[in-house]
Amino acid sequence: MKMKLLVAVLILSVAFVSAAFTAADIVRFQRTLEKCRTKNDLSDEVLERVLNGEIVDEPDFNCFAACLLQNYELLREDGSFNVELAVSKIPQDADFAQPLTDAIKTCSARRGTDNCKTAHLLFVCMYEKDVPNLLFG
């Protein structure tokens, strides 16, 4: 479950954006990751905790997640989650399409006091809904 936890938040920001990744998409994603990590001063220690499967509630990680979601237009400025965009990018023939759609719709109702807290609540909800296992088995 280690890497899967971080991937869940990354999936929210990227997997729905493009059905087929191109080399340019991968480069953009890498740049966005680095930009958001630098902008939010995401420490190696916090990242390591996340990679080890811990759900963290740290401002730097929460804002990093919000930054990713905002860069892919999944988290709006008003703090609402762009359910329509996320659902529209799910391959409808995939085994996980309906459970993932249900998780997105349920989790999108969670709102924090700011976008960073909202990203944390979305991240926790996606974990609770077992999204990492839905996507990666």
From TrEMBL:
It holds the Pfam family PBP_GOBP. SUPFAM superfamilies: Insect pheromone/odorant-binding proteins (SSF47565). Residues 1-19 form the signal peptide. The keyword Phosphoprotein does not apply. GO terms for cellular component: extracellular space. It is found in: Secreted. GO terms for biological process: sensory perception of smell. One of its GO terms (molecular function) is odorant binding. Keywords: Secreted, Signal. Belongs to the PBP/GOBP family. This is Odorant binding protein 11. It comes from Diachasma alloeum.
